[in-house]
Amino acid sequence: MFELLGIPPQVLLGQLLLGLINGSFYAVLSLGLAVIFGLLNIINFAHGALYMAAAFVAWMLLEYLGIGYWPALILAPLIVGAFGVLLERTMLSRLYHLDHLYGLLLTFGLALIIQGLFRNYYGISGLPYQIPEALSGGRNLGFMFLPNYRAWVVVASVLVCFGTWFMIEKTRLGAYLRAATENPVLVGAFGINVPLMIMLTYGFGVALAGFAGVLAAPIYSVNPNMGADLIIVVFAVVVIGGMGSIMGAILTGYMLGLVEGLTRVFYPEGSAVVIFVIMAIVLLIKPEGLFGRTA
Amino acid sequence: MRDESLLTVKGLNGWYGESHVLHGIDFEVRRGEVVTLLGRNGAGKTSTLLGVMGILPRREGSVRYDGVETIGLQPRQIARAGIAICPEERGIFSSLNVEENLMLPPRIAEGGLSLERIFELFPNLKERRRSQGTKLSGGEQQMLAIARILRTGAQLLLLDEPTEGLAPVIVQQIGRTISALKKEGFTIVLVEQNFRFAASVADRHYVVEQGKVIDMIPNADLAANNEKLQAYLGV
Q1: B104 touches chain A (CB under 8 A)
Q2: CA–CA separation, A201 vs A38, rounded Å?
Q3: Chain segment B44-68, per-residue pLDDT in tens
Q4: Quick check: is B18 in a domain?
Q5: ipTM of the complex model
Q6: Is residue B15 part of a domain?
Q7: Total structural domains in chain B?
Q8: C-alpha separations of B75 from A45, A103, A118, B144 in Å
Q9: Nearest by CB to B106, which of A183, A186, A191?
């Protein structure tokens, strides 16, 4: 087998795969943030906490009700999405006429409360969640061993990202969404129920985070801090991709996952900060983000 | 039926925050009529349309559409009752292509124009249906802004300065379109600065000044009232 700069291919491809998996989570989470920011103008800092909450919901469904991974993959995002709808109706909807900062502060507070509650009841040691039987094991690709579940995470995230992109860019419902992002007053004056659309969009964005949370449960243990660790990176991804760009959020998510993986191969010490270094460079050179539109 | 009032506005007051912009607007529009609101800049013409549509942040008074009081309704409910607006600056969505812009307002009743008929009226739009909405010329964007409210089945169209900033040949085309729409049975309220254009399409003119309607001149009497009107409009 070939070697690249003295790096054995197993190591390189292994880290790239790991990067792609991290990138899958970045993509699904930053997509949810972009969808929410686009229509609600709210920087949803509670996104990581809701991702974590969905992982816990999946764990609870299994632990208390015996409901397994596959139903949980649908149920947990629905439950967390419904909770998001409740948050939107009771709290966020009061902030739309105010500056972005208020939404960010409120959702930051909500994130701390949600995390605090889970930490209080479940501690921080993490709870195990089994990989579903159908996806256990793996296959030998010759140059590396590919665990089935990790392959599934990549496939599922690509499907969800593509499906969301398609819905927003190619359907009538998506046209309403894009139009309401530009001029909600006029869309309302055409007879479309914009407040309902905003509520469902927040619910959908949160459900995306929930979906990522269930996908993550078998890989990372279910832990109250799992969202807090991830959300900072995801915000950097959104800044790099450009706020409000759907395709930008998706592509940047995968791309930065891979960049992180490559950095882990060639300069492991830099892997934890590489995304933030890229963010700083992008902010200096192209502040609207790689795919963002100038305000 | 021709004389039946479709829209009756009485004592309409309107505010943007603290700023009181409409001070008791009164006018009525009969079914099938084209009526203009004339007046100087800042007289309250656009605010009157926004008041009828329910978009003005705060409004009081009475706006009856087809016999139903709409003052307490949301803009989306007013749209569903049968009123459609073509706003100042056109309101074309840049993230939507021409066809998506055209199909955006949902159908609220039977009786809207078919897509074929719309493309007959505006052949340019058919050719450019895949273009991004804001890539069209000013005239085409105006056509699109009018076209998209014709499909919905709304009977009353509020057109806010459809000729603003357009070349004379396009203004003529819009004039022909408005006449065609009148023949199709639409009722139209037109806000205009272009007095000649207004005279070529309207049945009656209301003059708005400082948030009030101060006069009504039937189009037939326009010549006789020319001096008065010039004084109102400050031309």
Answers
A1: yes
A2: 10
A3: 999 999 999 999 999 999 999 999 9
A4: no
A5: 0.91
A6: no
A7: 1
A8: 32, 26, 43, 21
A9: A191
